[in-house]
Write a structure and sequence with these properties.
The chain has 343 residues and is α+β, with helices and mostly antiparallel strands. It folds into 2 domains: 3-88; 107-335, BirA Bifunctional Protein, domain 2, CATH 3.30.930.10. It contains 11 helices and 9 strands. It has helices spanning 3-16, 20-31, 36-43, 49-88, 107-121, 135-138, 170-180, 221-236, 289-294, 311-319, 332-335; strands at 125-126, 132-134, 163-165, 185-194, 206-216, 242-249, 252-261, 278-287, 303-310. The strands form 2 sheets. Strands 1-4-5-9-8-7-6 form a 7-stranded mixed sheet, with helices on both faces. Strands 2-3 form a two-stranded antiparallel sheet. The chain is elongated. The chain starts with a helix and ends in an 8-residue tail after the last helix.
Length: 343
């Protein structure tokens, strides 16, 4: 076969290939070690120097032209593959997008934000603290020394003799008073607390609590009553009646419990309020002088009030939920009943 015929045949074969694999086969046939061009190379030993020079130049020219054709075809095939992939993967931007489900904010989180918004609107700051506390901050600085009978009111999870899971968020109040160094404070302390309690429809070993503290000159019981009255009406609506009754807490004196007219019967009496017309929602009182003294405040110059409220309790009342355990079971059927609230 003449060299120009070989070149023409190779061009036709290269033009016909449609895949990279076929192109590789054609290249190996015409440019490989066993290609027809190699046969011409073997004949060169029997030629004169002038003939070898002419034949060598012609073979090299054909090799170069075939290499260029193969490279051009390889790039053309690659461009075709990319175009086919683009066509296959084309996205129709006019189609409606995927709708991703939006979760429901947990009812406890909704209540926390609502309570925080109310008190921030009254000038309070939000303070948080550790859930693992020392006996000193959780009890002693709150006027509950070792052996005090009030400790029996809070069955405690002890980690060691001096470390425990806090039974209230009151230690945050004590820490804030120490940091304030005798200056006025006005804070709200949200967080988890822990007590050894039976897990039944209304009790849990872990629950959430808000405690508030205001300390300053000339703070009186009327300030406490006005604050809680405004808070309760904002939280539950202006139709709710409020009742204060004497109580006992070791860290406040005098102490009160705050009742709200029943959400279900409006104060007429029903099973929900045990036919009293009232539901207890929180405890409060004037900060005990011993608590102020332990934080280096002069109770003759500075007074204050404090209050505590269980988030699960008020959420159960507001949403008429009959079992506290619903909050922690992650049952979507329960959680989806509530509005999403603010993100």
């Amino acid at each position: 076969m003449e060299l120009h015929q070989l070149l023409q045949e190779a061009k036709e074969k290269i033009a016909l290939v449609s895949t990279q694999a076929e192109l590789g086969d054609v290249r190996a046939f015409y440019l490989g070690k066993k290609s027809p061009l190699q046969k011409y190379m073997k004949k060169m030993s029997s030629l004169t120097p002038e003939e070898r020079k002419t034949l060598g130049a012609e073979i090299n020219a054909i090799k170069g032209e075939l290499e260029d054709l193969v490279n051009q075809k390889r790039q053309a095939l690659l461009d075709m593959e990319i175009e086919a992939r683009l066509q296959k993967e084309t996205v129709d931007v006019t189609l409606p997008g995927h709708v991703f489900p939006v979760g429901t904010m947990h009812p406890l989180k909704q209540m926390i934000r609502k309570v925080e918004d109310i008190f921030i609107g009254m000038g309070y700051s939000i303070k948080e603290g550790p859930e693992i506390e020392t006996d000193r901050f959780n009890f002693e600085m709150l006027n509950v020394p070792k052996g005090h009978p009030a400790r029996d009111m809070q069955d405690t999870f002890y980690i060691s003799e001096n470390l425990l899971l806090r039974t209230q968020t009151s230690p945050v109040q004590v820490r804030t008073l120490l940091e304030a160094k005798g200056k006025p404070v006005k804070i709200l302390c949200p967080g988890k607390v822990y007590r050894r309690d039976d897990d039944d429809a209304t009790h849990s070993h872990q629950f959430m609590q808000f405690e508030g503290l205001v300390v300053g000159p000339d703070i009186t019981m009327s300030d406490l009553k006005g604050t809680l009255s405004l808070f309760i009406k904002k939280l539950f609506g202006s139709a709710r009646e409020i009742r204060f009754k004497p109580s006992y807490f070791p860290f406040t004196e005098p102490s009160v419990e705050v009742d709200v007219s029943c959400f279900k019967c409006g104060g007429k009496g029903c099973p929900m309020c045990k036919h009293t017309g009232w539901i207890e929602i929180l405890g409060a009182g004037m900060v005990h002088p011993n608590v102020l003294k332990s934080a280096n405040y002069d109770p003759e110059k500075m007074q204050g009030f404090a209050f505590g409220i269980g988030i699960e309790r008020v959420t159960m009342l507001a949403q008429q939920i009959d079992d506290i355990r619903h909050f922690y079971l992650n049952d979507k059927r329960f959680l989806q009943q509530f509005e999403r609230g603010n993100k």
